[in-house]
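We close this part of the discussion by returning to an individual protein. Part of our work consisted of pairing the sequence of a single chain with a tokenised description of its backbone. What the numbers capture is local backbone geometry rather than side-chain detail. The amino acid sequence and the backbone structure tokens for this protein are reproduced below.
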Amino acid sequence: MSLAKRIIPCLDVKDGQTVKGTNFVNLRYAGDPVELGKAYSEQNADELVFLDITASYEGRKTFTNMVQRVAAELSIPFTVGGGINELADVDTMLNAGADKVSINSAALRNPQLINEIACHFGSQVCVVAIDAKETDGHWQCYINGGRVPTDRNLFDWAREVEQRGAGEILFTSMNHDGVKHGFANEALARLADMLSIPVIASGGAGKMEDFRDVFKQGKADAALAASVFHYGEIGISQLKSYLSQEGISVRL
């Protein structure tokens, strides 16, 4: 039996409110993070991801009290990202109720941080998020919430991340983010074939078929989405029933 595929709502939080954009810009309000987190926990989501999306850009730490308030309402695994730059930050988030942390900009600036987190807290705690944009077939990694390009290639960086001890990779295609025309399945399948750690797909969910395709064509282990869940366009229970009917193993 293959491992069940995971459905993961994502709370992108800015100034204490959940927001959602398109291609990382044009943010609009999507609700209270605590209420949304509680609702997703009750709706049988497999996990929840909370990203303080402007923490790195604004050069500050994640809002700990907000993380505590969300965690208090959850009965599912909880991943927190944004502004995590050192081991002390990881400790703070785990103490606030997170099960895992997601690092992105900090990992690209200081790859050794991946080794340190995996070594101190275990690989299962370390999720490395990769935001990448495709231009003429080349996937380039970005930092600071998609604002700053780096010289790193998605596939080379993903391989290094795995070697350094990350437990999973959260890959967001900036080209697909918020557009709702499906995930970056070709790149995802390439990552899945290349890596032995789970890949979480992010960016592009618009309809139930997109989730089916990301699991079948993209070979993703988990699919993360925001606006389709926040605005009630897709219900998590209905989505799981649909995927099950399509022959995809999910936790019902």
About this structure: The mean pLDDT is 94. The longest strand covers residues 126-135. The radius of gyration is 16 Å.
